[in-house]
Amino acid sequence: MNKINYFKSIPVILEKTSIMSRLGHSSRSTALSARDQSFMDETISLGLALCRNQGAAGRFAVKNHIIQAVTLEDRTCMESRQLAKMLQKSHEVLFMAGTAGPEITDRISIEMEKGNAATAVVLDAVASASADMILDWIMDMFNKMLQKEGSRLTRRRYSPGFGDLPLSNQAIIFRLLDLERLNLRLKESMMLEPEKSVLALAGIERKETD
Length: 210
Known about the structure:
This protein is an alpha+beta fold. The protein is built from 6 helices and 9 strands; from the N terminus they run βααβββαβααβαβββ. It has helices at residues 16-22, 34-50, 81-86, 102-113, 117-147, 170-177; strands spanning 4-7, 54-66, 69-72, 77-79, 90-99, 151-153, 185-186, 192-193, 197-206. The protein is elongated.
């Protein structure tokens, strides 16, 4: 049976520059007034305080590769030429999930209802950056463990809905990781709740594959 790791509190450290870049801000081309700078700092701090960063990850053996699909040991099949190419040297797949939690998404909705669009947009950027950083944290942790096995993760990760991997594959990852344990929900549209949640996968390959 595949072991699933659940992380109920992930210490994500966000750089302010990563949040600002999501907002289209460049320090080289855009100068903020002291008032705007204060607003950004206060709102980013609020967003970070509202995030409840959690995640999950599990390793699953690959049974078969073909040009347009990858099949797991339990016969789960994910059809995608781009994914199959990325996993062509992988003997396992690491499925991952990350969520910034419901508090920040609820606050974003409240700010929009109040007409505070600027606050909502900054909080949205904080939540999105946090969700992505959770996956970075998970990959870094697993790479350190895999190093002892003579293995590593692929440099890239892949998410359903990108490239030629249909969004419907969210259901596969959701099921295999039993993400209801993190209080996540998958809607009929294949979108996740809370909204600022992300799923992805990476391959596990032997280091001698170079």
